[in-house]
Design a protein that fits this description.
Elements lengths: L1 H8 L24 E4 L2 E4 H5 L4 E3 L5 E3 L1
Antiparallel strand pairs: 1-2, 3-4
């Protein structure tokens, strides 16, 4: 079921790095996980939620 969910959500897409050999997870979506920080535990999704990437006409990436 996980593979089907990835296909439907578009999470099966992998961004290549130009022939460089890297870890199999490089270029893929990061799974939600619990991280230990100096201030306590936090989920990865909670850290990324406030950031909304925006592609600009200049080819740069900005955050809102």
């Amino acid at each position: 079921m996980g593979r089907l969910a990835d296909l439907v959500a578009g999470a099966d897409i992998r961004y290549e790095l130009g022939g460089q050999e890297a870890h199999p997870w490089v270029g893929r979506y990061a799974p939600d996980m619990v991280l230990q920080t100096p201030t306590g535990t936090v989920r990865l999704a909670e850290l990324t939620r406030p950031w909304t990437p925006e592609a600009t006409a200049r080819g740069q990436v900005a955050t809102c």
